[in-house]
Amino acid sequence: MSAPKKTSDIVSALNDFEDIKLTDKMFGKFAEHMYTLAGVDLPLTPKNHALIRNRIVKLLRRHSLKSYEEYWAMIERGGAELTSEFISALTTNMTSFYRESNHFDFLTGALPELSKKFGSDIRLWCCAASTGQEPYTIAMTACEALGDQYKKARLLATDIDLQVLKKASIGTYEEREMQGLPPAQRSKYFEKVKAQGEEFWRAKDQIHNMIRFAPFNLMTPKYEFQHQFHVIFCRNVLIYFDEATTKKVIDNLTACLAPGGYLVLGHSESGNVKHTHLKPLSRAVYQKI
């Protein structure tokens, strides 16, 4: 059996990676690839240079590579796993339960109205599901707003990042990830479970079964769904897109929205909407007319 590595050896190995230089040329290749895959706009700035360097250096360690050029050569050879890994590394996933809570107050009032108007199933889409806190918040809101009729609600939750989508579909969270969830909702819609000696919170079937999780890329040229949606949440995504990509995504989302339905964006994104068929209602909430 080989002797365990000394702490000094581990620190030295990490420092070796810190010495690897990311040239502007390689930065450009990674940034362009991310734009092509996910529409994320990363112009060359010190902040973005540090972001790409710090995120990808972890992948160099994972694959025992010695340069960014070696990792780029792997990407060029292709493969779904590498693509997923790359997207996940450069995607920022900041989320919490009831984030920007006024949107869920709005949804509470809108859902009964939509149920009366459309009668059949209410179709909702959360198109940046991340690790799941947002779609589960939408599901809880639907249960509260619709009462016994909550089964009318059908929620599609998508994300381009397969790793966070997998976590979302499992619906299990550590205590620190339950931030923002009021005690009443926590006890009503989640249950404590144990795994490997640790305690977690798991979404109960009432909200878990309401949601269908699936991968989806908002850069898809045309969104083809069988039915239109009555509510679409696309929050804190457009901030990563350039103006042209934002317009294309808004156009596609509007086409997927039923007349009278609602589009909900992030608070900082309301200035990005310039569409003749969208009427602003409240902060970052729009209705299709």
Identify low-pLDDT runs. 7-15
Put simply, the count of helices is: 11
- Say how many strands there are: 10
CATH topology of the largest domain: Rossmann fold
> What CATH first level of the largest domain would be assigned?
Alpha Beta
Distance between the ends: 71 Å
CATH homologous superfamily placement of the largest domain: Vaccinia Virus protein VP39
Helix content range of the residues, please? 40-55%
Structural class: alpha/beta
Q: Structurally, how many domains make up the residues?
A: 2
Strand order, largest beta sheet: 6-2-1-7-8-10-9
Q: Please outline the major beta sheet.
A: 7 strands, mixed
H-E string:
HHHHHHEHEHEHEEHEEHEEE
In CATH, the architecture of the largest domain is 3-Layer(aba) Sandwich
Secondary structure blueprint with pairings:
Elements: H1 7-18, H2 24-38, H3 46-62, H4 68-77, H5 80-90, H6 102-118, E1 122-126, H7 133-146, E2 153-159, H8 162-170, E3 172-173, H9 183-189, E4 190-195, E5 198-203, H10 205-208, E6 211-215, E7 229-234, H11 243-256, E8 257-265, E9 278-282, E10 285-288
Parallel strand pairs: 1-2, 1-7, 2-6, 7-8
Antiparallel strand pairs: 3-5, 4-5, 8-10, 9-10
